[in-house]
Predict the structure.
Amino acid sequence: MPFITETKDLGRIFGSGSAAVHALQGIDLQVEKGKLLVLRGRSGSGKTTLLNLLGGLDRPTSGEVYFQGTEIGRLPNRNRTKIRRQGMGFIFQSFGLFPLMSAAENVEFGLRLSKVAAREWKTRINESLELVGLSKRAHHRPYEMSGGEQQRCAIARAVAHRPQLLLADEPTAELDSKTGRKISRVFRKLVEEEGMSIIMTTHDPSVMEVADIVYELEDGTIRQSMLA
Ligand SMILES: Nc1ncnc2c1ncn2[C@@H]1O[C@H](COP(=O)(O)OP(=O)(O)OP(=O)(O)O)[C@@H](O)[C@H]1O
């Protein structure tokens, strides 16, 4: 199966009647496995809405959205959650770590939600912290880590169950440009060395530099954009 993610004439309307917002319309997207795809566009152009639909966090108003050939837009919640927890990992702008848990415990929490057997947790935690260069911070809590380290920890948590698809919403927005560049390289490494597929939204040029494909959203429609 060639595509990790595919959409057909995907649309999302929020509200109804005169208050209806056409957040997305006619989105046809095909994402090959093992690529890093970036969605960019102005505030309100529909980036987060599209990412949420691709990740099965929201349902379309019209059209279809596929994950590895399975239409997920109309699946019952239980099935969609299962696919999401096993096949996808999520990263958000504000890291989303639990403040009272160490880096290792945060990663373990991610593993608990997926179907990974408990006997494998320790290995997976060590491997994923190593992958993002955070082994030395395993027992530190988020407030003892820099912003870049916290985002590395969030990445380790998102990839510990080895998802096929990683979705990230503005993952470098809260970081300075040097740290943002380092985090961009971590994403590139996941693609090159782990064969992961990544879709992320960003305004950050350093993320654009590591992308294979860039798409531009404008008023809820999409077009491929030239790489910078
Ligand atoms: N839950 C909602 N209810 C109503 N309107 C919404 C909702 N979510 C998004 N919208 C509207 O849909 C449009 C697209 O929003 P979206 O958050 O996808 O944009 P974005 O490109 O991610 O913006 P930003 O870069 O500011 O995060 C906007 O006009 C927004 O106001």
